[in-house]
Design goal:
9 strands; single chain; disordered C terminus; about 300 residues; two-stranded antiparallel ribbon; alpha+beta; globular; five-stranded antiparallel beta sheet
């Protein structure tokens, strides 16, 4: 066989292999896409349930320890809406199943520029419409908690998470992060269950209604209703968490929506004034992370 024929055969063989491999990879990607999307939804649900304390409250476990059926059972407590962040009103024009706030933040017509913010979350734009989640007992329309998606820059990455508020809309019920690239053992300790548990029961606003929740420099002062312990060696990450919590609680974040929701909750409370009182203050009990299996309430 001549050298040109041998070279051509090698090229053809390589080309066929490339085509076959490409087709195989494409077919696998298409076949796995439904499972990937299902896992993505399940992961989102787990994080929301953890932020609200539903998993610990009902099963005494973190959501990562629950099976799919248990997650689906807890998810019956949760409903969602899209809200206009500027007005605080519910948005009925967009389809919640198709709308992606993260993609909207990249589009000029679906986002606004963040200029000279009081609390800098380190990103140039944020979406105009956000998704919020309500926690209600099955069969009841009473809002027990609201869960708000939050995000902002840390040291190396943008941290994405959820902040849950009790139905007074001033007390933090939980804070969790589901995506970030902070340094393991330092800023990455935002995932530490003991540290996240410190947020439960803290106040979000000061007496004047200004966002005041924060990560302290060092240990949180005794009796401080707004602070959690700082993370050693993670000053910039801690500052980022403080800024993102305060930004999203303020007038440029969910502030207008929370004002509107407070009116709705007050109206619902007035309408139910003659109804028997329940024995659960917020609809979900918070439990000690170190003794999750015993399900002993902490602090309240």
């Amino acid at each position: 066989m001549s050298q040109p024929d041998s070279t051509m055969k090698t090229i053809l063989t390589a080309a066929v292999l490339c085509v076959v491999c490409s087709l195989a990879v494409s077919a696998a990607a298409v076949a796995l896409r439904p499972a990937q999307e299902e896992n993505k939804v399940l992961d989102r649900q787990r994080n929301i349930l953890d932020a609200a304390g539903l998993s610990m409250g009902e099963f005494g476990k973190l959501s990562s320890e629950l099976d799919k059926e248990q997650i689906e059972t807890l998810w019956t407590w949760v409903s969602e809406e899209l809200v206009d962040l500027e007005t605080g009103e519910v948005n009925t024009e967009l389809n919640p199943e198709e709308y992606d706030p993260r993609e909207a933040a990249k589009k000029d017509d679906q986002s606004i520029e963040i200029t000279e913010p009081t609390f800098d979350i380190g990103v140039p734009r944020r979406e105009k419409v956000a998704r919020v989640y309500y926690v209600k007992k099955p069969g009841s329309e009473k809002v027990e908690m609201v869960v708000l998606p939050v995000y902002g820059k840390g040291l190396w990455s943008t941290l994405y998470g959820y902040m849950a508020l009790k139905n007074d809309l001033e007390t933090i019920a939980g804070l969790t992060f589901y995506e970030h690239a902070e340094t393991p053992g330092l800023g990455g300790e935002v995932d530490n269950t003991k540290w996240k548990a410190q947020w439960v029961g803290n106040k979000l606003y000061d007496a004047d209604g200004n966002p005041a929740a924060r990560v302290a420099k060092g240990p949180a002062p005794d009796g401080d209703d707004y602070a959690v312990d700082g993370l050693s060696g993670a000053t910039i990450t801690c500052r980022g968490v403080t800024n993102l919590v305060r930004y999203w609680a303020g007038p440029n974040g969910y502030g207008p929506f929370l004002d509107q929701l407070k009116k709705r909750i007050s109206g619902d409370a007035s309408a139910e004034a003659d109804q028997p009182e329940t024995d659960v203050e917020s609809g979900v009990e918070q439990y000690d992370i170190d003794n999750a299996g015993t399900k002993e309430p902490v602090g309240e």
